[in-house]
Amino acid sequence: MINLAKRDIEHTLGKFIVTAMGVGMLLGIVLIMIGVYRGLMLEAEVLLDDINADLWIVQENTMGPFAESSRVYEDFKNIIYVMNGIDKSEAITFQNIQLPHYEKPIRVVAVGYDVFGSINPINPKRIIAGRDLKSDHYEIVVTDKTGFGLDDKIKLGRNFYTVVGITHNTVSNSGDPLVFISLKDAQDLQFSYSNKEIQNNEARGVKNSESHMVNTIVARVKSGYDIDEVARNIRKWQHKSVYTKEQQKEILTKNVVEKSAKQIGLFTVILVVVSTIIIALIIYTMTLEKMKEISIMKLMGLPNSLIVSMIVKETLVLGVFAFIFGNIFSHLTYDKFPKRVVLEIPDAWMLFGIIVIASILASFVGVKKVISADPAAAIGG
User: Fold this and answer.
1) How far apart are CA 88 and CA 222, in angstroms?
2) How many CB atoms lie within 10 A of CB 283?
3) What is the pTM of this model?
4) Which of 65, 83, 104, 377 could bond to 215 as cystine, CB 3.0-4.6 Å?
5) Residue 303 CA to chain centroid, in angstroms?
6) Would you state the pLDDT for residue 117?
7) Distances (CA, A) of 371 to 9, 282, 308, 364
8) Percentage of residues in the chain with pLDDT exceeding 70?
């Protein structure tokens, strides 16, 4: 039996390929949107995983430095350190700053930590050039996304900082590049006032008492101790909010990036629906173009099942070709996006299954037209 679908596609091969490429670009955007969601969730946990703290101690009745403003005294780390079950504790600050650049300022999140402390938030595996911080003052480690090189000078506040290290894939939960400076420099940037501001405050009887504040205390628990029990003791006796690593991840995913994730998910669903509608319209148009040929086939005695099979096969082939072009398009363009896009094979296979189902559903509009075709239309044009 002649394969009608194959012959029909060969007859209009150029048009068929261009159509598949157009639909494929739309499917490629769907894959990229899924990748954006994956990247969003992955970036939200980068800093948490690199610090690898069991406990996050923050200002009472706040949700931590990623969701809310939090301030605690730096020396509170010493109180935490001597509590039962604590192995290490350190003070850390987080702040949004603008790095001056010759093109335009670069928005980053600066992480301040004790250079000589027991917990280092810089993952050594992410350092691609230089080293981590070795001095309390005027050194900075930047990510490669900032465009700075080793030994570059960056002016922050009233001082110049030398780039001593460059990292890769270090971003905040919002996708902004991370830079690392010493705790003393971070406190100076975040909590210290200018000389004129200090004079004005002193004239009003207000003293600058925030220079030794931090945003959070992170701690690691000794082996054999129950993390939740240690957290309860800190809440009970120190009157602070305490979150485990898993709770902090939940805060990030539920409270910080949840709306963005839902928005991306909704946009992805809309794109899939639009792709299905477009495939249906294309198949309907292709069916209309050969209605006379279909009528002749019916007049010759070809069964509806054979003609319907042709329409369904054409639709499936169109969907498969569009999926292939979509994959090619997404892999050629995903690294051009400003935020991280993570393309995973299971997501591609899931989309392939959706496209197959969507193609079969889309073919129904053409099938309906075939069934209703009148063989008498083949006579007399």
Assistant:
1) 8
2) 25
3) 0.77
4) 65
5) 52
6) 92
7) 21, 18, 8, 10
8) 88
* Cα separation, 377 vs 381, whole angstroms: 7
**Of 223, 251, 230, which Cα lies nearest the Cα of 70?**
251
Whether residue 145 contacts residue 135, with contact meaning beta carbons closer than 8 Å, is answered with no
Task: Output 269 or 78, whichever has higher pLDDT.
Answer: 78
Most confidently predicted of 142-151, 247-256, 260-269: 142-151
Query: CA angle 298-299-304, nearest 5°?
Result: 15
Question: So what's the pLDDT on residue 260?
Answer: 78
In Å, how far are 104, 139, 146, 166 from 162, measured between CA atoms?
19, 5, 14, 11
Q: What is the pLDDT of residues 204-219, one digit of tens each?
A: 665 655 668 899 999 9
Residue bearing tokens 């398009």:
329
Compute the chain's Rg from CA coordinates. Answer: 30
Mean predicted lDDT score pLDDT of the chain: 84
Q: Token match 């210290």: residue?
A: 192
pLDDT tens readout for residues 330-359? 999 888 887 788 888 898 898 888 888 877
Q: Residue 311 corresponds to which tokens in the numbers above?
A: 């329409």
Please give the single-letter amino acid code of residue 247. Answer: Q
Q: Among 26, 1, 17, which residue's Cα sits nearest to residue 329?
A: 26
Q: Cα separation of 41 and 98, whole Å?
A: 24
Query: Which residues, in sequence order, are bridge partners of residue 165?
Result: 130, 141
Report the pLDDT value the prediction gives residue 281, as an integer from 0 to 100: 80
